[in-house]
Each structure stands twice: as C-alpha cells, then as structure tokens.
Design brief:
Elements: E1 3-4, H1 16-19, H2 38-47, E2 52-57, H3 63-71, E3 76-80, H4 87-98, E4 103-106, H5 109-115, H6 118-127, E5 138-141, H7 144-154, E6 158-162, H8 169-184, E7 189-194, H9 201-204, E8 212-216, H10 222-235, E9 238-239, H11 242-251, H12 256-269, E10 280-281, H13 289-309, E11 320-321, E12 327-328, H14 330-340, E13 346-348, H15 349-359, H16 367-384, E14 391-393, E15 398-400, H17 404-419, H18 428-433
Parallel strand pairs: 2-7, 2-8, 3-6, 6-7, 9-10
Antiparallel strand pairs: 1-3, 4-5, 11-12, 13-15, 14-15
Bound molecules: adenosine-5'-triphosphate and magnesium ion.
Length: 436
C-alpha cells in the first residue's frame, strides 16, 4: 500500500514481459478506452466533493489498472482489501505508511516527553494524553484512526481500498460508518469492488445512501481487446496476422487479462524475448489450441473442481447416461450443458435445458431437479467468493458466469473434450480426465 507522490515516469525497455503484462500494470499495451470515457468518468467522480467514489465492475475487468493509471500522479495510499482482517488494520497500515507509531512507551511524564519523536509528540498533543508524573512505564496504544484521518485530510491524500468486497462484512460496515463523517468533511475515498449481478455493492449499502458516486468499469468489446495484440506485437516488431488476432479476441472471454496472457505465451512460443531488429512473423496457421488448453487448466480448475463435486450429501446420486459415453450426476451434467453453450456469460433456463438434452441420452431431469442443482451450485459459488463460479437468478431464470477464468476452463477443458470426441463417443478415460 504505497503512498505515491509525483515522480518522473521510468523508461521501460521493450521486452515480452513489459509489453504483455498479465496481472500487473501494462503501459505499452494499456488501452484507455477513451470512447467509453473510462478514465474521464473516474476523474470526474474524484472531483465531486464530499462523496465516496465507488469503482465497480466485473471480475478482472481492469478496475485496479484503471485506478492506478488515473491516480498515478496524485498522492494516495493504496490498501489491499484482502490484507484486512480487523477494523483497526486499515488505520494501522495507513499509520505505518505515514510513519506514525501505533503505540508508544513512556516511563514518566518528563521522561516520556523527552523521549518521544516529533510524530509522537504531535500525536500526544493532538490527543492531550500525557502521563502524570507518578506513573511508571506503560505502553500506550495510539488511536490510529483519528491520526490517519487527520493526516489524510490535511495532506489531501486519497485513500484507496482495493477489493473492498474482501473485507469481512462487520469490518466493512464499521469502516463505512466511521468514514462517512470524514468524507463529508473533505476526505477523498475510493473503494474498488466487483459488481454482483451488475449491482454496485458499495452503492447498495443503506448506510451510504446519497453519499456514493458510482463509476462502473464497462465490459470489454472485441475492438478494444484486439488493440492489445495489435499494439503489443507492433512494439515487439512481430507481425500478427489479423486471423490470429481475431481468434484471440474470440477466445479471451472478454478478459484483457487473458488476452495479455495469451499474447505473452505466443511471443514466448515464437522465441521473442525483446524487440527484434527484423520483423518476426506469426504463421497464419499458428496452432493456438495447445496454449488454450494449457492455460485453461491453470485458471479455472480450482473453482470448477468445487462445483463438480457438488454439495456435501450422504445420498448416492443418480448417474445419467451421457450422449458421448460415460455417466454424470446432475451437477456435472449441468456444468457440461453450460459448457456446451459456448459457454456464454449469461444463459437462459431454456437454453440450458436444450443443451442438457444434447448432453444426456436419458430423459432430461425434471425442471425442479435442474433448478435445485443450479441453486446449490450458486450456493457453492457464493462460498468461494464474489463473482466466482456460477450464479442462478431464479427471478430472471438465468445463469450468470461472470468469472472469465471459469468460462475459459469450461470452454477448453470441458466443451473441447466432448467436441473432440471421435465419432461422437467420449471415452470413459476422457470423462475421468475431466476430474483431474
Ligand atoms: N486498460 C487495460 N489495458 C490493457 N490491459 C488491461 C487493462 N486493464 C486491465 N488489463 C489487463 O487485465 C489484468 C487485470 O486487470 P485488473 O487487475 O485491473 O482487473 P480487476 O478488475 O482489478 O480484477 P479483480 O476483479 O481480480 O480485482 C491486468 O493485469 C492487465 O493484464
Ligand atoms: Mg483488482
């Protein structure tokens, strides 16, 4: 959680790793999506006084990258929500960055006064908490919240909490209660979180009604995604045929992260580490499938595995016969049907049912059986975390799979298995492999 002040931008060497940055902050391949006013919207929100800025968007859509880009020249403190367990952690961390002690030990009024550093003396004055002469050695815990808020406001430092949804619920609520007043008095606060069912969770907090300025990171469109290979390969002096760029765009599940990762893999595959003097071509026929298969195994597997096992239950599950050979219980059959849709990010119940009849030989399970399975799969997903796994919206009767990693896994480890079946028969061995 660095505090950032103005510094000259470093000169970046052009290498595979600095061009295609998957999981970090890209610069050469940073796409500003100006036509969607992405940066401008966040900038505008920051200019609105006395409001909490909520920056929300789908999982891996570029929330962190956008915020870092917009804030790069403004003094700020960055806190990772995933590192916060207790309410005081946020304030302790801010004090740590600002160089304020969290506690101070003093022996007597006079000694204490003499021994303390400037920062502490300032604090003690602020708190009016000097020892009286008769007291012996004691350790005093400093009110880090008051200290941190005072400093942030005085120095106009923006407080950013990334992955705010990772904070335990009680911590989240008490933080918001405590921060309302200081924000009203001028403290700048930005909270980054994933949208759930398209809803901005921070805005939905009743406690904050009317006090949140919400910015939503839009979904990525194919034209913007294609700019990543175009710019990156150009920088490396690699000639990427439009067919290859198009295929990457089709397969990256609308995720700039996956696009960066795929491009990095191709560069490695053709042996390009740094910008080449002579243009290096990628063959039109370059086989991308092995890359898709290898990467998909890494990305979506942990989530898929939990979903495939289904809920804990002592009951023996009925195994249904699959059209491609082998059998599957209702949970696995539903996951296969989801995969068979593409998978699409949103699937209606009717589309899912139609795919179930493609996947199963046996009669399709009753409506209630399917919706129950979807409910339980959604419950498992909720336990895994926001925006992971699948979501079942029983009112709209649709399934949402917002996690691009899971979609990539379903596409390349599940759908491709039954698509590649020779003569339409998926062997028992292949079905077994789906579990590994
Ligand atoms: N504007 C962009 N231009 C190019 N690549 C981007 C852009 N935004 C994001 N990416 C790519 O996607 C990756 C993930 O972005 P980021 O970490 O910002 O997503 P996020 O929405 O914060 O994800 P999470 O939901 O996990 O917090 C980046 O490391 C980068 O590879
Ligand atoms: Mg993030």
């Amino acid at each position: 959680m660095p505090i950032v002040r103005r510094e000259p931008a470093p000169v970046i060497p052009v290498t595979r790793g600095t061009v295609f940055v998957a999981g970090g902050q890209p610069s050469i391949t940073y796409i500003d999506r100006q036509h969607l006013n992405v940066e401008y919207s966040l900038q505008q929100a920051l200019n609105v006084p006395n409001q909490i800025v909520s920056l929300a968007g789908p999982s891996k859509s570029g929330k962190t990258v956008l915020c870092r880009k917009v804030m790069q020249d403004a003094p700020h403190i960055w806190i990772e929500g995933g590192q916060i367990e207790r309410g005081t952690d946020i304030w302790d961390k801010i004090c740590y960055v600002l160089n304020y002690p969290v506690e101070v030990q003093k022996k007597s009024k006079d000694e204490g006064k003499a021994g303390i550093s400037v920062g502490v003396a300032e604090f003690l004055k602020f708190e009016g908490s000097l020892l009286n002469g008769s007291e012996s050695a004691r350790t005093y815990k400093i009110d880090t919240m008051a200290q941190a808020i005072r400093h942030l406001r005085e120095e106009n430092i923006v407080l950013i909490i990334d992955d705010f949804h990772y904070l335990p619920e009680t911590v989240r609520k008490s933080f918001l209660r405590n921060i309302k007043g200081p924000v009203f008095d001028g403290l700048k606060l930005v909270l980054l979180s994933v949208t759930h069912r398209g809803l901005d969770a921070v805005k939905a907090e009743l406690e904050l009604q009317g006090r949140v300025y919400s910015v939503v990171v839009p979904e990525w469109n194919p034209v913007d995604l294609t700019k990543i290979p175009q710019r990156g390969f150009h920088a490396l002096n690699v000639q990427c045929p439009s067919g290859v760029a198009h295929r990457l765009t089709q397969e990256c599940q609308q995720s700039p992260f996956l696009m960066q990762k795929l491009c990095w893999e191709i560069s490695a595959g053709i042996g390009v580490d740094t910008r080449s003097e002579k243009p290096v071509p990628i063959a039109n026929s370059y086989d991308l499938v092995p890359i898709f298969q290898r990467l998909s195994k890494d990305f979506g597997h942990p989530t898929y595995q939990k979903l495939e096992i289904g809920p804990q239950s002592r009951k023996t599950r009925i195994q249904k016969k699959l059209r491609f050979g082998g059998t599957a219980d209702i949970y696995k059959a539903v996951l296969m049907a989801i995969a068979a849709t593409g998978p699409a990010a949103t699937i209606t119940y009717d589309e899912l049912r139609a795919k179930l009849s493609d996947v199963l030989i046996d009669t399709i399970p009753r409506k209630q059986e399917v919706t129950n399975a979807l409910k339980l799969l959604a419950a498992i997903s909720r336990d895994i975390g926001d925006d992971a796994g699948i979501d079942w919206d029983s009112e709209e009767r649709k399934v949402d799979i917002s996690d691009p990693y899971l979609r990539f896994y379903l596409r390349w480890q599940v759908r491709s298995q039954f698509e590649s079946t020779v003569g339409g028969t998926l062997s028992q061995r292949l079905m077994g492999d789906l579990r590994n």
